[in-house]
Amino acid sequence: xxxxxxxxxxxxxxxxxxxxxxxxxxxxxxxxxxxxxxxxxxxxxxxxxxxxxxxxxxxxxxxxxxxxxxxxxxxxxxxxxxxxxxxxxxxxxxxxxxxxxxxxxxxxxxxxxxxxxxxxxxxxxxxxxxxxxxxxxxxxxxxxxxxxxxxxxxxxxxxxxxxxxxxxxxxxxxxxxxxxxxxxxxxxxxxxxxxxxxxxxxxxxxxxxxxxxxxxxxxxxxxxxxxxxxxxxxxxxxxxxxxxxxxxxxxxxxxxxxxxxxxxxxxxxxxxxxxxxxxxxxxxxxxxxxxxxxxxxxxxxxxxxxxxxxxxxxxxxxxxxxxxxxxxxxxxxxxxxxxxxxxxxxxxxxxxxxxxxxxxxxxxxxxxxxxxxxxxxxxxxxxxxxxxxxxxxxxxxxxxxxxxxxxxxxxxxxxxxxxxxxxxxxxxxxxxxxxxxxxxxxxxxxxxxxxxxxxxxxxxxxxxxxxxxxxxxxxxxxxxxxxx
Amino acid sequence: xxxxxxxxxxxxxxxxxxxxxxxxxxxxxxxxxxxxxxxxxxxxxxxxxxxxxxxxxxxxxxxxxxxxxxxxxxxxxxxxxxxxxxxxxxxxxxxxxxxxxxxxxxxxxxxxxxxxxxxxxxxxxxxxxxxxxxxxxxxxxxxxxxxxxxxxxxxxxxxxxxxxxxxxxxxxxxxxxxxxxxxxxxxxxxxxxxxxxxxxxxxxxxxxxxxxxxxxxxxxxxxxxxxxxxxxxxxxxxxxxxxxxxxxxxxxxxxxxxxxxxxxxxxxxxxxxxxxxxxxxxxxxxxxxxxxxxxxxxxxxxxxxxxxxxxxxxxxxxxxxxxxxxxxxxxxxxxxxxxxxxxxxxxxxxxxxxxxxxxxxxxxxxxxxxxxxxxxxxxxxxxxxxxxxxxxxxxxxxxxxxxxxxxxxxxxxxxxxxxxxxxxxxxxxxxxxxxxxxxxxxxxxxxxxxxxxxxxxxxxxxxxxxxxxxxxxxxxxxxxxxxx
Lengths: 484, 484
Fold this sequence. Notes:
The structure is a homodimer. The first copy, chain A, is α+β, with helices and mostly antiparallel strands. Chain A folds into three domains: 12-130 and 320-340, BirA Bifunctional Protein, domain 2; 141-307, BirA Bifunctional Protein, domain 2 (2-Layer Sandwich); 351-459, Rossmann fold. Helix content of chain A is 42%, strand content 19%. Chain A has 18 helices and 16 strands. Chain A has helices at 17-36, 50-53, 59-64, 82-91, 138-154, 166-175, 182-189, 192-206, 212-222, 228-236, 243-262, 327-336, 361-372, 386-395, 406-410, 427-435, 446-459, 472-482; strands at 40-41, 47-49, 67-70, 73-77, 100-109, 121-130, 159-165, 269-271, 282-291, 301-306, 320-326, 351-355, 377-379, 400-404, 413-418, 441-445. Chain A has an eight-stranded mixed sheet. In chain A, helix 6 (166-175) packs antiparallel against helix 11 (243-262). Chain A is elongated and about 90 Å long. At the A-B interface, helix 1, strand 1, strand 2, strand 3 and helix 4 of A face helix 1, strand 1, strand 2, strand 3 and helix 4 of B.
């Protein structure tokens, strides 16, 4: 007798099979795309020694940690994939070759206050490039290319990667004599999108103690906008006052210069001087990625350049650049926005075989043949009424049913029914399809039935897991390349 | 300054990049093979409410659980994937279609005593087929086919799936009037392999309180061996004395009957009456899988038929059959035995591009083109000596290096060096390869260079992650089918 009510903890995503298939497809695309750029997969433990995991943590993060003891051991669940990477690189330094490029897609844990769309267990999908002592600026230019390609392959079109350089900000604040206050100022400027320039100015003067003129200079600087070229041109007028600023401008100019060669469409990338990233370890290029039609969601993919990944674990200087997709949250948002592609194949099988005879040997052999041909096949052998069997295929969205009755077996044949074709097609449409070799139902010798199924399955257009409105600029871009 | 010594907890597997690539390849094969058989992927939380997770647990398992509190919540890390499946099916019953076929590859946690080859965090790879009220015997026949195909695709050849049926054992013990002692007897008989029949007989009489005659009957029964047909024939002589036994014999006969049709080679499958499986919820077919050359490892893949998956969570009767691969332990054993394929490609990239000019635009464009063609490409832009760059490619086992110098760029060409070809090939061998269009180093127009790389990469033979000795029977089998 049932004694416990089954439940899943709040803040933990547990998907039904069709959305899980979409999530798997997304992860598969991430793995394949990251691999194309020469990243190697890593997998580190979910549990680490608290001493190791919390070497650097503090404040808000530490409060959210799942921390516990087992025997004598003080243990914690990882709260991101960056700290375990730092540990990994410090620990295995002698066995790695640098630059070390790794991706990791894994679950992390934060005991946040439960609220809609916030998760306590969630996937992060991270890429990082770690140098040994030095890391060339080109890695920072490559990151937006990888993210642009990744999101495009997922089916996302209306997104923009926003980029800035912390050296530009640090240099600029140094010119104003505000280096000590830079952190506070950046936190305040970060609110521009939300509260507007007037309120930011008030905060800068009242809370940060800036003069009216300093606040005005900052807001003027942050207001620089336009095309990437226009922003860079405006920044040129600040050159020569501060070495750090000048280096940041060099770096940003290099990043922008190589974008087109890396294949990033211009409209997918914007220099944005208001981006700073809260974490204090970013030291160069910083990235945020926004969905243009859903700015309220905030950044769906963020990261940047840091100068010393593993300073708590090793005296080796390990600069790097990385970026992270909050995959569980992104999936949740896509689902909420109706952006998961309903056309994507989420069926557990391509073919359901319904044997109609007592001896199942022919059905079992046919299933084995289909699987050898790479066709996902389920053999349905439950004792149910015909209608229940068809309803099973329908509910699971399996596109083809194969009947194997005595007539078929005697003739060495199989009957294939196409469940994706409507029952009430007009005769002329049906005729047109039959001329193209596509039948509502057809009986074929088993070898031909297998080839027929393989052909129809191969004809399915590939479906991205996300549906998004086309980017308005894309049409123009295409016609521009046609222009003489 | 470094303040904490980086370390990974003992009992937690953390792999270097090349073995990690092999592990990923194994998981990829598992996912693809399970999908071919119509299983849908699931992902459930690592953390569950202790009340839910431990509804059934007790004894040894409960002691090993990672259990802790967070706020008011009493939480536990999952210790297998079966209990979360039971919860999932009970919780989402109305949204699922039955038979429900799912696979799950995920980490589970057991705080076992640390010892070599034992893991506290390890992957299980499970498949289960769950019926609603009933589940046809054919699912029990299909499981060995799936496992045989899975291990074969992984590259394992010398393995055997051993099968028994709990009804045969239960019926047999009932005939002897030993139903009450069946659990104790099965635990004792399970030691046959380790301690031999004499000692088992002693334990049966002295510890279990059986008569000499009963113990003799049991050992006689357990000694039934030979081909599957021979064992089934011997079992026929017991038929008619007990209804449960007879049903078990029917089921086992059905499972054996369909093996060939399912494509399981005869030598990969053995009826073995000594298999019982410890867990008391198995009620029909039970499976163990042994590596023929490493019986000391025990079963690498076990499972069976159960009559009621989720009795603690629902009054619905949910019979099923499932089997689980202990993936982390299997990987460890393969690694220890030197059975991980050294020929398998574990490089993070197929091509390393070494630009030789200041302007990197042509190199970036060529990298983008290679990636569009599906070639895993890394652009190397660090300021290092030529020798250090080549050594980087060598260490990472990247097969091709592309040089883009001023000469190449002026000519719209790229120089491709094949690092897998030895430097000291005899001239005649070199000539033979060049005639086949394979060069130690060649400069080609960029489009042709891309096509050349694509061709050479496509020519690589596919490599399974495991290398195993060929099964001795395979050659005979092949020639037998040739015989008139």
